[in-house]
Predict the 3D structure of the following.
Amino acid sequence: MRVEILTVGPLAVCCYFVICPATQKAAIIDPGGDEDLILGKIKSLGLKVSYILATHGHADHVCGAWRLRRELDAPLAMHKDDDEFFRTPEAMAIFSAWGFEPNEPADLTFEDGEVFSIGKIHLKVIHTPGHSPGSVCFYDEERYIFTGDTLFVGAVGRSDLPGGNFQEMLRSIEKKLLVLPDETIILPGHDYGDRPYSTIGQEKKTNPYITEFILGG
């Protein structure tokens, strides 16, 4: 599996390209704006996009999806809980305050444990609610996990927005992420740490939310 990254949109979202080298098929994870930049990257790499995947439904992570899904003829997929929640009046008001348009419905919805095949690559959905009701991570079960805004390098996602729950997020991290192999590489939704990526083992040792609230609790 090959991974490329662009930092996009007004809130500097990490947009990932998950590429199958054998087929040049790809998935885009979290296209948070700068659609021309994303389209240019796809063209320069000669990719055929199979899916646009959302780690969660916050507009800063999916606002570029509406144009991309049409130009690339690729479906947007989101966890069913976020697809529903982030089209409610409460969520739309938040997005408007941020300067974003309301979310359109996803083309596909999924639940925990489902698998997306991109050429010879398989990404498994791990439902990790807490940052939002339908927050997920995408795991290739070999090396990488794309954690969205659930787990950052040295931090965790905020839980003070509508649909967020701090204790639920800690449970998601403890029960769903810390059980993965220590060498699993974490690729987060924003580069908020002292380095752009980490590992499960490193976060167990150095992330204060894990050492104090989970392992030390």
